[in-house]
Design a protein that fits this description.
It is built from 13 helices and 16 strands. By secondary structure, it is of the alpha+beta class. The longest helix is centred in the first third of the chain and has 23 residues. It is elongated. The structure holds 4-amino-1,4-dioxobutan-2-aminium adenosine-5'-monophosphate and magnesium ion. 4-amino-1,4-dioxobutan-2-aminium adenosine-5'-monophosphate binds next to β11, β15, β16 and α13.
């Protein structure tokens, strides 16, 4: 009965094989016995199926092997596919044969409550559990939806380097490493590089891991997270916000369309997602500060919004809210000065509902060579490292805008999970580098 991978039927395809005898391979989730019948739930990575093992059907050897099955033992089973509403996917397998491919030791994660640190220490095994599978399936679908959206919109994907000499965001959260005697940083953003690709392709995006030495232990911060960053030539800040609301609605819509089952497993309130459609509410930074102060926040004009401010603000809306035109001092050097109020810059953050915080940071870019150089000097950034970036303003400068969306925070919100650590297969945080 031994087979190559391609010879096994996948559980998700069982509906095509009703009445037939099929062979599949997978891992045992649970085993229950009732006299001379045993029920095993087997997960093959595409689904879970109930397998019914009757002593008189399978013979002595398979029956004995069946009784010995431990959680996560790898098995190959042969059986007849039957429709059965009580089985997880609606089909069950009446076994005619069972073979243990590899026995599992006592599996550390049992069907009971474990502490989060224990689960995080066993992340390599925790990935197999129902909730974690659902969460990571949604992540995968959302990432595919990212590519599909930009592909359909005519964007060109440009991969930005991970090792870089220029500081993308702020000097305070850089990881650095020795690069043949020079200092290299792990990229905080791909933005500066895709800005360079704009005159070549007009609409571009990058999508990859980014790194921030965040010394904060919050439910919103990872030190390694995935960010998608589009950049568009001849788009101003208003156009940038319109792209963001269409993009985020697309991602949510895709999860609703293709991950219903997962969202149900996660007990997500779908009505909260179903109303996510453009236009999203917009408030200026100045209005946001007034609103927050009237609701008891201590924020002063000029300060960035604290996490608690974001939550308080988001609670006033039932959709993601876009806060635009922050004070210059609260934001990165590359944002364009607001001609109508030079204390502020043409930028926006998007804040997700339900306390998930900022999921997007975006801006129109400073396209004036002199002002950009002045900002680099003002921030005390190493001018030499930006000479190539300044070239973009020397050789045919142009109005352009873009944004970065953090995948883990976005999928945390879509799935309703409270902490970003579950939204990436192997999270990296201040106190976690393993597994
Ligand atoms: O607001 P940020 O820092 O913006 C940029 O990096 C710009 N260069 C983007 C651009 O305009 N091309 O980060 C963008 C998003 C945040 O809104 C958040 O969703 C996510 O990245 N993010 C984090 N996610 C998890 N852990 C962290 N430590 C994060 N820092 C930012
Ligand atoms: Mg930001």
């Amino acid at each position: 009965m031994a087979m190559t991978e391609s010879g096994y039927v996948e559980v998700r395809n069982l509906h095509r094989h009703v009445g037939n005898t099929v062979t599949l391979a997978g891992w045992v989730e649970t085993l229950r016995t009732h006299g001379k019948v045993a029920f095993a739930l087997i997960r093959d990575g595409t689904g879970v199926v109930q397998c019914v093992l009757a002593k008189k059907e399978v013979g002595e050897d398979s029956w004995e092997a069946g009784l010995q099955l431990t959680q996560e033992t790898t098995v190959e089973v042969e059986g007849v596919v039957r429709a059965d509403a009580r089985s997880p996917g609606g089909y069950e397998l009446g076994l005619v044969g069972l073979r243990v491919l590899a026995r599992s030791e006592e599996f550390p994660i049992q069907p009971k409550e474990h502490g989060i640190e224990f689960l995080m220490d066993h992340r390599h095994l925790w990935l197999r559990s129902t909730l974690q599978r659902a969460v990571l399936r949604v992540r995968s679908e959302v990432m595919q939806a990212v590519h599909d959206f930009f592909y359909e919109e005519g964007f060109t994907r440009i991969d930005s380097p991970i090792l870089t000499g220029s500081i993308g965001e702020s000097a305070g959260t850089l990881f650095s490493t020795d690069y043949f005697g020079e200092k290299a940083y792990l990229a905080q953003t791909g933005q500066l590089y895709i800005e360079a690709a704009c005159p070549a392709f007009r609409k571009v995006y990058c999508f990859g891991p980014t790194f921030r030495a965040e010394k904060s232990k919050t439910r919103r911060h990872l030190t390694e997270f995935w960010m998608v960053e589009p950049e568009v030539a001849f788009a101003d800040s208003e156009a940038n916000m319109r792209l963001q609301e269409r993009f985020v609605s697309h991602l949510v819509g895709r999860a609703l369309e293709r991950c219903r089952e997962e969202l149900e497993i996660l007990a997500r309130d779908l009505s909260k997602l179903e109303r996510v459609k453009p236009p999203f509410p917009r408030v200026s930074y100045t209005e946001a500060v007034e609103l927050l102060r009237s609701r008891g926040s201590q924020i002063e004009w000029g300060q960035d919004l604290a996490g608690s401010d974001e939550t308080l603000l988001a609670d006033q809306f039932d959709m993601p809210v876009m806060v635009y035109n922050y004070p210059r001092a609260a934001k990165a050097f590359y944002m364009k000065e607001n001609p109508a109020d030079p204390r502020t810059v043409l930028c926006n953050d998007m804040i997700a509902p339900e306390g998930y915080g900022e999921i997007i940071g975006g801006s129109q870019r400073e396209d004036d060579l002199g002002r950009l150089l002045a900002r680099i000097r003002e921030e005390g950034l190493p001018e030499q490292a930006y000479s190539w970036y300044l070239d973009l303003r020397r050789y045919g400068t142009f109005v352009h805008s873009g944004f970065g969306l953090g995948i883990e925070r976005t999928v945390a919100w879509i799935t309703g999970r409270s902490h970003v650590r579950e939204l990436i297969p192997f999270p990296r945080m201040m106190n976690r580098l393993s597994p």
